Amino acid sequence: MTHKINIITPVLNGEKHIRTAIESVLAQGNVPYEHIVVDGGSTDATVSILKSYPHLKWISEPDKGTGDAFNKGCRMATGDIIVMLPADDCFKPGAFEQVFKTFSEHVDCAWVAGYCGIINDDGNEIRRWITLYKNFLLRHHSFNLLLTECYLSAMAVFFKTSLMSELGPFDIYATTEYAIWLSIASQHKLYVVKEYLASFRVSRGSMTGSFRNFPATRALLAAKKYRGSHPLAFAVHYCNYLKLLVAYSILNRLLK
Length: 256
What we know:
Elements: E1 5-11, H1 18-26, E2 33-39, H2 46-51, E3 57-60, H3 66-76, E4 81-84, E5 90-91, H4 95-105, E6 111-119, H5 128-139, H6 143-148, E7 157-160, H7 163-167, H8 177-185, E8 190-201, H9 215-223, H10 231-255
Parallel strand pairs: 1-2, 1-4, 2-3, 6-8
Antiparallel strand pairs: 4-7, 5-8, 6-7
Helix pairs in contact: 9-10
């Protein structure tokens, strides 16, 4: 079977790094893919950049955030595999070949995940100890382990388009990728690629923000769905959440 990857890139005012994201897709070589960019109405040079790449399928209109943009991208998709690539992030060379190989070798494969590095604004690798920790957890993946904390990175997770009919659209206000991974993991085996497929970017100042927008809070809400059936794993998740909350609160104070 010939597979085709749909890369969906939600973006808003992403002129700083979106070229890097697009070029990382182009660098994948002669493999079937479709790159869909959903712009939320950027006021910087993002749209001009998109116009300079004729291979892109893109729209630009106001939306209600990443979940809304991703839903739009999924409706535009024509391939059988989907991955989200935020405009700040990028793929590693050869990533798609690794993904195609895994899907082709396992007829029951519904989703694939690989390693993902962390880079700064200059593209240099940072926080290697976090990456090594997440890689270790990924190698030992199980649903219960994933329920204790999220060690998957969206740009290194590829899943069958057909799963969208099972999962339904993203909740445009509340759902994080973690909720999607939990939903898939509860039903389907994860095939792990022990190679680096992508990098996600952490910009200076991104650790700050209000408690309401704290990513771990949304992850906790996603995990609560499984509290009754997996109480011990949820309890571990809650303890991890409290530790993260304390750590982020300290960092926010130090960065002010």
